[in-house]
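Re: weekly structure request thread

Next one in the queue (245 aa):
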Amino acid sequence: MPLTIGWREISARLALTILAGALIGWNRGETGHPAGMRTTILVCLAASISMIEANLLLDTRGKTPDAFAVLDLARFPLGILSGMGFIGAGAILHRGSLVEGVTTAATLWFVTMVGLCFGGGLPGIGVVATTIGFFVLTVLKRAEDYLPVDRRATIDLTAECDSPVAATLPAELVQQGYRVVERGAATQVADGRRHVLYEVYWRAPPGQPGLGECLDKFAAGPGMIELAWQLGPLPDRDTTRPPIP
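Done, posted below.
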């Protein structure tokens, strides 16, 4: 970081900052994520301006030898990064076991660092970082569609006591490569109903046909009353149903 900078240097830093923020934001906005182009540009600019301001304050003309220690310009980027931590935390959304917005928060944190690089007079690192970040958000995003991942779902089944579905369904799923664990069962003798909870595990790419297609033929099976499933862990116990031991 040079001790003195002019408007030409400042304009170049701001231009590179806007281009980097726009490139990352265009990718996020194109895929419908909350942190779009305007958000990433503003975040990147805020970080860059803070470093430009710190750079302008580095001018030692007319200052005492201990001016750096008194001014402590490192607080500018530190404050920016601390603030982005709170903004990133607000972008993360929890829905039970489902966590959304982690990549959005990481993107905001990333463009903050890119802005600090450009604003601090390190365009080489900023360009390299922007290139790597764009590669991660585009190429690796497409690669994730083909990488197998561990998946889990819960099957909530209610059928008549004499229905064969409760016995044939887990065996059929096991034959298709799923791992099935029975988590609980309850029988209502008066109504002649049986309620069973299964937890299913499998490994497959996100684009592969899901569990729902395998369960369609069981939904209309003999004696079936209700068949529901959802991704994630066991749902909260429904107080209207019999307790599961």
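Residues 234-245 have pLDDT under 50 and may be disordered. Residues 138 and 241 are 46 Å apart (CA to CA).
Next request, please.
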